[in-house]
Amino acid sequence: MTKQVEKVDRVIIRFAGDSGDGMQLTGDRFTSETAAFGNDLSTLPDFPAEIRAPAGTLPGVSAFQLHFADHDILTPGDAPDVLVAMNPAALKANLKDVPRGGTIIVNTDEFTPRALAKVGYAADPLEDGSLDGYKVHKVALTAQTVKVLEGYDISRKDAERAKNMYSLGLLSWLYHRPTEATVAFLEKKFAKKPEIAAANVAAFRAGWNYGETTEDFVVSYEIAPAPMPKGTYRNIHGNLALAYGLIAAGHQSGLPLFLGAYPITPASDILHELSKHKNHGVRTFQAEDEIAGIGAALGASFGGALGVTTTSGPGIALKGETIGLAVSLELPLVICDIQRGGPSTGLPTKTEQSDLLLAMFGRNGEAPVPIVAPRSPADCFDAALEAARIAVTYRTPVFLLSDGYLANGSEPWRIPDVADLPVIAPDFAAGPNKVLEDGSEVFWPFLRDPRTLARPWAVPGTPGLEHRIGGIEKQDGTGNISYDPANHDLMVRTRAAKIAGIDVPDLEVDDPSGAAKVLVLGWGSTYGPIQAACRRVRREGNPVAHAHLRHLNPFPANLGRILKEYDRVLVPEMNLGQLSMLVRARYLVDAVGYNQVRGLPFKAAELAGVITNLIGTDAVEGVGV
C-alpha cells in the first residue's frame, strides 16, 4: 500500500494520560526529535500537583502539548490538532480543547466499564457517536505493546509501561521525526537495565512500524525545518536556561556561584541542575527551610560570592525579612521567584504572574528592590545574566520573576558566543577609601560610588577593611550604628535613589505601521501570546503596537513617553491587574487590564479578539477588568 505524504506548515500535538503513563517523557522525547529536525517549537507541559494522583481520575491527568512549525512561532498553540489520549480521563479532560475535525488517537485497552464510570461516562464515547465530528483512530496501544514484548525477560507491568514509547514511535512515523536520538536516549537511560532498554526500544520501533503498515493511517505529514539565523541551537527549558545564565554570570564576574535553596515546585529543577556543575565554581546548599536558604546565600555574598536563592511565591513570603536585610546591608543577591498559582499552596504546578506586587512591596520599611522578568524559556538565560549584572554593579538584591509556564516550557535556543556575553565587574574594595582631616586613611563601608551610589564590597579577611554589618540603620559613610532621624531619612532616600537610577535599556515598541492607536503592554511570559495575537490582528488589517517590559523596577526611562503616544493601553496579565495598577499610579495613564488566573497561559485567539474589540470601539466593551 502506497501511503500519501502531506506537507503542512505547522501542527499542535497533545499527549495526555494518567500521571504514571509517562506523558512528560513522551512529550519531551518528541520535542527533542523535533528540535533535532530543525523546526521552530514551543511546549506546554501540564501535570498534577500530586506526586501520584489517583489513577484514571480527572485530577490525575498529565498532558504535554507541543507546537512545531516551518516558521517562527511564539506559543504552544491554542488548541491541539492531534490528541493522544491514553485513557478515558485523558479524553474527557482534553476533548473540549480539540477543534471539530481534529485527530484523536485513543488507547482502546483502557476504555473499560470501570474506567469509564470513574470519570462519569455513562456510555463509551468511542461507540456512542459523540466523537463523530473528529478523526478518531482506535489503537490497542497496551495490548499491542505487550504482544511485541512477549519475548523479553520483563514483567507484564514493565511491558505495559512501554506503551508510551509505542505511541511515541507511532507519532514519530506520522510526522517524519528522526528516531536515532530517542533510541540512544533509551539505551543510556536504562543502561543499568539492558532488558528494559531493549524492550523500550522495541516498543518504540514497533509503534513506528505500526504506522508504516496499518491501513488506519493512510497519510503522514511533513513539516519542513524552520529558517533560523546561523548558529548552534539546542532545545532548552526555562529553568535550565536560567541555571546556565547563573553559571555564565559567575564566569563573567569571576565570582564563585553559591545557591542556597529549599526545594519547591516549580523552582526545584534549578537546584538540581546547578548541583551538577561544581567544575564551574558552583556550590549548592539544600537548606532545611526557605529562611536558611536565603540566609546562606546572603552570607555567601558577604563572603565575596555571587549569592543566589531560588523559590516560588510561598517561599518569598518566608524570605521577606532576609531580603530586607540584604537591602540594608547593600550586598548582591539574586532572588529567583518561579511564580505559581496562589495564594498559600495554591496551584503548585500551574502558572501565574501574581507575585509582582509582592516583589515590589513585600517587605517592611522602605526597601526597594530591582525586578527583572524573562519573556520566554530561552530568555531566562539573558534575564539571569542581567539580574546578576544589576546585583553586582549596584550592590543590591534583585528579583528575577519567571513562572511555571517559562520554567517547564521549552523552545530552540541559539547558544551564544561567550565573547558576546557582558562582563560583570565586582570591583572589590582593596584598601582604605577615605582620608580623614588628620590625614589618616580609613575604610568607610558606606562611602558611595558617585555614579551608581553603590557602596564598596569588602571581602572578609582583607586587612584594614573590617566593618560592622547588621540590620540596624547605618551612618552614612562610616557604617556605624545610627539612630539619628536625619541620617535615617538620608539613607532611606539614598537607597531608593540607587534603585531608581539603575541603568536599564529603553523600552522598544513593535509598531510596524506606525499608525497604531492601541498599545498592548505586557511583561514576563505573556510575551508569546501577546505577540502572536498582535500578528493575527495585523493580518486582519488592524494596526496595533506591542511593548514588553523586562525591567519592572525601575521602569525604562522612556516608558512614560511611550504610554502617552497611544490612545489606549491594554495590559494583559495572569493576575488581577498588578502591572496595570503600577502603570496607572506612576504615569496617570488609563491602562485597561485584561486579566485571568486560570493557571494556564493566554490563548492568542482570545487576546486577538480583545485587541480587535478595543481597536474597533470607542467604549471599552468586552474587556474583562
What's a quick, concise take on this entry?
By secondary structure, this protein is of the alpha/beta class. Helices cover 36% and strands 19% of the residues.
Number of strands: 24
What average pLDDT do the residues reach?
96
Q: Report the major sheet.
A: 7 strands, mixed
Give the DSSP E fraction (strand runs of 2 or more residues): 15-25%
* Coarse structural class: alpha/beta
Number of helices: 20
Percent range of helical residues: 25-40%
Domain Pyruvate flavodoxin/ferredoxin oxidoreductase pyrimidine binding: 258-471
Domain Pyruvate/ketoisovalerate oxidoreductase catalytic: 20-207
Organism: Catenulispora yoronensis
Domain Pyruvate:ferredoxin oxidoreductase core: 516-585
Could you please describe the fold and organization of this structure?
The chain is α/β, with parallel strands linked by helices and 625 residues long. 36% of the residues lie in helices and 19% in strands. The chain contains 20 helices and 24 strands. It has a 7-stranded mixed beta sheet with strand order 11-10-12-13-15-14-22, with helices on both faces. A 6-stranded mixed beta sheet has the order 3-4-2-5-6-7, sandwiched between helices. The protein has a 5-stranded mixed beta sheet with strand order 19-21-20-23-24, with helices on both faces. The longest helix has 20 residues, at 194-213. The termini are far apart. Residues 20-207 form the Pyruvate/ketoisovalerate oxidoreductase catalytic domain. It comes from Catenulispora yoronensis. Residues 258-471 form the Pyruvate flavodoxin/ferredoxin oxidoreductase pyrimidine binding domain.
